[in-house]
Amino acid sequence: MSDMLLDPTDKVERSQKVFAPRLDTLAGTTIGLLDISKSKGVFFLDRVEEVLRDKYGVKEVLRRMKPTVARTAPAAIKVELTEKCDAVIEALSD
Question: Beta strands 60-65 and 87-91: pairing type?
């Protein structure tokens, strides 16, 4: 048995996050869809893309997929989405 005493209270101070400003409209924008590699994600994002284009007038949809659900997206994908998209939706599905 260990002699270590653990403190179960959460005393970690968290910094305030600043949210990105909202878009006034989706019309004419480029939206990134990041598939996190969950099963059926492609089917879900196909429908999301269809709605974005048909209902909200999104000009372009840039789709990328993480190599595995267990890890964060590679830096190159994050940079590309940040540089080319007005907004990004990270989606999962099973």
Answer: unpaired
> What is the rounded CA–CA span in Å between residue 62 and residue 58?
11
pTM, rounded to two decimals: 0.78
- Rounded to whole angstroms, the Cα distance separating 11 from 3 reads 22
Residue 1's pLDDT band (cuts 50, 70, 90): low
Q: Which two tokens stand for residue 32?
A: 């990134």
CB 74 within 8 A of CB 17: no
Q: What is the 3-state secondary structure (H, E, C) of the chain?
A: CCCCCCCCCCCCCCCCCCCCCCCCCCCCCEEEEEECCCCCHHHHHHHHHHHHHHHHCCCEEEEEECCCCCCCCCHHHHHHHHHHCCEEEEECCC
